[in-house]
Amino acid sequence: MKTVGQRLKWLRQQKKKTQQEVAKDMHFKNANTVSRYENDERRPDPETLARFAVYYETTTDFITGITDDFKVENQGFQPDLKLFSFRLKQGLETKEISEETAAEACGVKPEYIHKLMYNPDKLPGVSTLYKLADLLDVTPDYLGGFVDDPQGRSPHTPKPKELTEFLNNENVMFHGVPLTDEDKQKIENVLIGLFWESKQMNKRKKK
């Protein structure tokens, strides 16, 4: 397989999909669009290339011929960082949100937002990913490059852990001493109080 089109066709066949199915799943106008990509009559732009990589669970390096290893490393699903940075940059520009405003909303430095937009080495932490997605009115699943639907969901997307579930289900220790059920309940009560106090303070700030 020497061309981008040949690799796209091979990946589709490996996934046992028709051109019509790919077109529907990836929200292309029709199957002819897929056919033109596979016949090298049209070259995918960077975003479409990244979308193909996500859809076929491979890398843009494989599709473009940089490597012949089509499997994603480290097992499990790996998001395409190029697609993430593209969606973040496009989303902030469309919403006319500055790097400084995004940084303030996420509790990080503007330099970090700039890095995420242009040269990320990994996805941001769960908290930042979810806050950025909220700013852009999309799901973190879409922003992270796990789905093509702006409101779609994916089981591969990192999820925040519910603190109460953590306390109830895990063998939690404090300074090496296991917490009893009574200890866990006391901690949960304190956290609930702090949580609602914080909510009230935020409401007063917005007035």
From TrEMBL:
Which SUPFAM superfamilies does the record match to this protein?
Answer: lambda repressor-like DNA-binding domains (SSF47413)
**Record-annotated HTH cro/C1-type domain positions:** 8-63, 103-143
Per UniProt, the keywords (alphabetical) are: DNA-binding
**Superkingdom, natural source:** Bacteria
InterPro entries, per the entry? Cro/C1-type_HTH (IPR001387), Lambda_DNA-bd_dom_sf (IPR010982)
Pfam families, sorted: HTH_3
PROSITE patterns in the cross-refs: HTH_CROC1
Q: What is this protein called?
A: Transcriptional regulator, contains XRE-family HTH domain
